[in-house]
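Hi support team,

I'm filing this because I wasn't sure whether my run with zinc ion finished correctly. The job status page said complete, but I'd like someone to confirm that the output block is well-formed before I use it downstream. Pasting the exact inputs I used:
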Amino acid sequence: MRFRERMYRFFAGRYGWDRLNWALLWTAVGLMVLNLFFSRLPVVYFLLYGLSVALYIVIFCRMMSRNIPRRQAENQRLERMWSAVCGEGRLMRNRFKDRKTHVFRRCRKCKAILRLPRKRGRHAVTCPRCGRHFKVFILFSGKQEKE
Ligand SMILES: [Zn+2]
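And here is everything the job wrote out:
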């Protein structure tokens, strides 16, 4: 009972586990695995080994940290980066899929990416997000509009 109470006191108010720790843990494990291929190169071997050990220390320190807002901010930075990468990947896929029927242009004012029907010539476009008017020149017509 006393032991449990002591453990509880020890972990109370500490940060614990999050997705950033998962990411760090998998990176550390990945480095260890990568290290299997460098056993004949002592410099690389110890560098990777040291790096993964450093990561384990960082993970442990984050778990035990009492500065919870700061740890949450770190984790949020990772989540934002992750969703940006996912969004970019999805966009690239769509752009590739629609390349014959649509063109993609970035609005210079609000940075929104507009999906426009691929139709040869100069077109007046209004950004649906910020309302900016601009001209888009399209060199080649798509497959759908054959005259
Ligand atoms: Zn815009």
